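Input record, target 12 of the design panel.
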C-alpha cells in the first residue's frame, strides 16, 4: 500500500478578467475517478488544500450533462459527498512531500485561483520532483506548477513535456474570452512544452516522474498509469 497526496483547490470560485467571480472548484471526475482507482489498488489517499478547507466540487461537474445522464450524475454526487478523504483535508503548509509515494493534482478552474499562486503548492511539487516521486496532474491542475520555482526564479519543471487543458479547449468551452490568463500559454511562458491531443479526447503525457492528462476524460488513463508505476 502506498500513501498518495491529493493536492486540491480550496477555492469555490474563479476570478474572471473583469473582476467578477464564476462559481468553480475542482472537477469531480478528475478527483473521484483517480480516488476510486487508487483505493481499488489498495492505496491510501490524503487530501490537502490551501488552509485545510474542504475542497469544493464545481457544481457544473456534478450535473447530468457532464456525467452521461442523471444516473451518472447521482453516482458522482454520492461519491463526492461520501468520500471521507474530501471531508478532512490537511493544510498544504503542514504537509511534507517525503511522507508520500505519489502526488496527484486534479483540475477544475479552482486551481487557477489558488494553487497557481500558493507557495506551499510549489514547495511540495518541487520536493516531489527532486525526490523522483511520481506526480500526476490533470486538466487545469498544472496551474499549481506555476509556483514551483527555484531560488533563481526559474521554474523547476522548465523543459518538461506536459499535457494540460489547452487554449483551444478553453476557447471551445467558451471560457477563453473571460479568462484572466490561459493555462497553456502561461505554462509555455515559464518554459514547459505543452503536448496537445484532440480537444476533449483522452490524452496523457509522461516526462520523467511527471504524469499529466489533458482534460477530464484523461483522468482515468492517467490514474491507471500511476497505479502501474506504484505497483
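The sequence produced for target 12 reads:
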Amino acid at each position: 500500500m502506498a500513501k498518495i497526496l491529493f493536492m486540491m483547490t480550496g477555492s469555490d470560485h474563479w476570478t474572471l478578467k473583469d473582476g467578477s467571480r464564476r462559481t468553480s472548484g475542482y472537477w469531480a471526475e478528475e478527483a473521484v475517478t483517480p480516488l476510486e482507482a487508487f483505493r481499488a489498488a489498495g492505496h491510501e489517499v490524503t487530501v490537502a488544500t490551501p488552509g485545510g478547507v474542504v475542497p469544493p466540487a464545481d457544481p457544473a461537474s456534478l450535473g447530468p450533462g457532464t456525467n452521461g445522464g442523471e444516473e451518472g450524475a447521482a453516482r458522482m454526487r454520492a461519491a463526492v459527498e461520501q468520500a471521507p478523504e474530501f471531508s478532512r483535508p490537511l493544510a498544504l503548509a503542514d504537509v511534507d512531500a517525503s511522507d508520500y509515494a505519489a502526488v496527484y493534482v486534479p483540475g477544475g478552474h479552482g486551481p487557477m485561483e489558488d494553487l497557481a499562486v500558493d507557495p506551499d503548492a510549489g514547495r511540495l511539487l518541487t520536493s516531489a520532483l527532486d525526490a523522483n516521486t511520481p506526480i500526476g496532474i490533470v486538466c487545469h491542475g498544472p496551474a499549481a506548477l506555476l509556483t514551483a520555482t527555484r531560488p533563481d526564479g526559474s521554474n523547476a519543471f522548465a523543459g518538461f513535456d506536459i499535457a494540460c487543458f489547452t487554449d483551444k479547449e478553453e476557447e471551445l468551452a467558451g471560457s477563453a474570452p473571460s479568462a484572466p490568463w490561459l493555462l497553456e500559454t502561461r505554462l509555455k511562458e515559464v518554459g514547459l512544452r505543452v503536448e496537445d491531443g484532440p480537444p476533449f479526447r483522452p490524452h496523457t503525457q509522461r516526462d520523467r516522474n511527471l504524469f499529466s492528462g489533458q482534460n477530464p476524460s484523461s483522468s482515468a488513463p492517467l490514474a491507471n498509469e500511476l497505479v502501474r508505476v506504484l505497483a
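The mean pLDDT is 97.
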